[in-house]
Each structure stands twice: as structure tokens, then as C-alpha cells.
Amino acid sequence: MPYLTIPVFSRENLRETAEGRWQAIRESRPDLEPALVLQRELLTRTIDLAETLGAGRLPRLSLPPKYLAAKLARGVPALAGEPIPLPVPVLTPVLFQLCDALANGGAGEAATHIRQELEGGKLEAASLLNASLHRDQAALRTGAIHRGLSPDLMWLVAELAVSPFAHALQRMLFGAVAAGELHDALDAWPHGYCPACGSWPAVGEVAGGHRTLRCSFCSCAWELKTYACIYCENGGEGFVTAAPNEERKDRRIEVCSACGGYLKTIDVPELSPFPLLSISDIETTDLDVAAMEHGYGRPGMKEFTKKK
Ligand SMILES: [Zn+2]
Ligand SMILES: [Zn+2]
After folding, report:
1. What pLDDT, on the 0 to 100 scale, is given for residue 1?
2. In 3D, which of 96, 44, 75 has the Cα closest to residue 194?
3. Residues 182-228 pLDDT 10s
4. Closest of 79, 257, 106, 236 to residue 173, by C-alpha
5. Which one of the ligands is nearest to 296 CA?
6. If you measure from the C-alpha of residue 278 to the centroid of ligand 1, how many angstroms do you get, rounded to a whole number?
7. Residue 83, SS3?
8. Which of 167, 214, 267, 305 has an alpha carbon 20 to 30 Å from 251's alpha carbon atom?
């Protein structure tokens, strides 16, 4: 089945798994140490937030399986364009903590500045969180530039704070889908962007020979029936899979000369549980460098027209 449900780990289990993976990275890439220290700070926040959200109640969404199935059949992700009440009071303190962690972890004043704007009320937490949940990169960028803030950093802070909620929604909508039209629509999903939120995958994790795309935002896991460029669906001549390091064939990049996009794919013993996918991302930064050196890039967020 192309949509995969990943078992839930306890907080202790997640921390232990993360520590083991960081130790392995540290041994082969000591230069990544500062990035790993920062990642631990950020992941601790998202793991704690996921636990808090898991203990509370998620909003009841009026999204019947039949409606979602029809939406997916049109190529529109489930959450796109839906009014979803965000737990703003729970997420706002986490925004502050993330700004602090980033400020101490190398982003310095640019992160402090975002926190100050939020605290002073010039930047509204609710609208920032909403823009992120709805993957509205254009609105968030405009808002950041207008206030003299770093658009990339603001996008990152909001994304980290909202991702546990987006992950929980994704699981609620797709995680327990029984046989029926929504099951079939997910099974038939042919796109490289996430069927839940519309983001592009951070990486492709290959476990047991299955190339599973992993959403960079909600951690959704899905497998395509075709082997082609995930961005433009070209599977012809210009689509090449290569291992930049001859001795590490378990770490590859798929590059496409038709659209200029690339995707990292790595062999893993098992798919990463949320939010540890970001460790797969950080442990493959050399693949990003190799792809970018050859002129490949990753496209911006795909935009979806409003529902109906
Ligand atoms: Zn997603
Ligand atoms: Zn392409």
C-alpha cells in the first residue's frame, strides 16, 4: 500500500534512537557537531510538543472520507484550503523557545528579532502559525520582508512549531483508514508532493527495497508506483540516480535535467518516526552539496487552488 503508517515511539524511545543516530554522525562527520547540538535543542522542543498534543484533543474536522477521496483524486492534498483551528496558546511558547534555541545555535540576532516582534505583538503568532500550516510560503515571505525579518528563519521557526500538529492531523486523517474510497485514493496517489499537506519530501527513505517519500513537514510516508522525477514526473533520459561517493552506494541522489530538481534517497533499516526524519536530512547534507554543485535545486512549495 503506498501510504505507510509508522509506529509511534515513546518520548524516551525517540530520544534514545536520536542519540544513537547523532553519535554515529559525530563519528564520521565531526565537523557537523555544532549543527547536531542545535538539532538536539530543536528536536527536544518538537518531541515535547508532540507529547503535549498527543495528550490533548485534536480538533474535530469535518472532512468525510468520501470528500477527501474526491479531493485527492483531483491532486489536491487533504489539508489544503481547509479551515483548521490551531492550538495557538500551546504553540506560541514553543515559538519563543525555538527562537531562543536558534539564537544560541548560530542564528543570533536574526532569531532574537523574530522573538521580539512576536512578543511585542507586531508579528501575530496565530497568523504566522496559520500561514505555516497552510504552507503559504508567499504570505509568510511577504510578512517577513515587510518587517525586516529573515524569511527563511521565520519559515523554519513556524514550521518546527507547527509540524507536531500537522503530523498528528495527518495520522488522524490517514492513519486508520479502512478499506473504501479514501483508502483507494491514497493507494492511487501518483504525486511527488505530500497527500496530506502538499509539501515536498525531505528525503526518500529506502527500507526493504521500497522507496518511500517522507514529507518534510508532516512526516507522511508514501510510495509511488513509478520510478521517475518526483517534481516533473520525467522518467526518461534526463532522470538519473547516482551515488556521489562510490563507496557509499546506500546514499544516492536522483537528479532530473528536465526540471533541474533533485531528491536524496538513503537506505535505512527502518523508516524514521516523527520527528527524527530531520536526522536523516542532516546526515545527508553532503548529498545536498553534491547536487547543488552540479546545478540542481529543490523547487519552492507547490501552490494549490482553493478547494471546490
Ligand atoms: Zn505532509
Ligand atoms: Zn524533473
Report:
1. 56
2. 75
3. 999 999 999 999 999 999 999 999 999 999 999 999 999 999 999 99
4. 79
5. 2
6. 14
7. coil
8. 167
Confidence of residue 176 (pLDDT cuts 50, 70, 90): confident
pLDDT of residue 308: 38
Residue with cell 515513546: 10
Give the span between the Cα atoms of 274 and 15, in whole angstroms: 11
Question: CA quadruple 181, 231, 159, 222: dihedral positive or negative?
Answer: positive
3-class secondary-structure state, position 301: coil
Element (H, E) at 32: none
Q: Are 195 and 220 in contact (CB under 8 A)?
A: yes
In the numeric block, which cell numbers belong to residue 3?
501510504
Ligand nearest to the CA of 196: 1
Residues in the chain: 308
Instruction: Quick: pLDDT tens for 251-267.
Output: 999 999 999 999 999 99
Q: List Cβ<8 Å contacts ≥24 apart for 231-237.
A: 231/192, 231/200, 231/256, 231/259, 231/261, 231/299, 232/256, 232/258, 232/259, 232/261, 233/192, 234/258, 234/259
In one letter, which amino acid is 63? L
- For 82-91, write each residue's pLDDT tens digit: 999 999 999 9
Q: Inform me whether the pLDDT recorded for 152 exceeds 50.
A: yes
Residue 184 CA, ligand 1 centroid: distance in Å: 19
Q: DSSP for 94-118? A: HHHHHHHHHIIIIITHHHHHHHHHH
Chain position carrying cell 514529507: 215
Residue 17: in which H helix or E strand, if any? Answer: helix 11-28
Q: Is the pLDDT of residue 126 over 80?
A: yes
CA of 194 to the centre of ligand 1 (A): 5
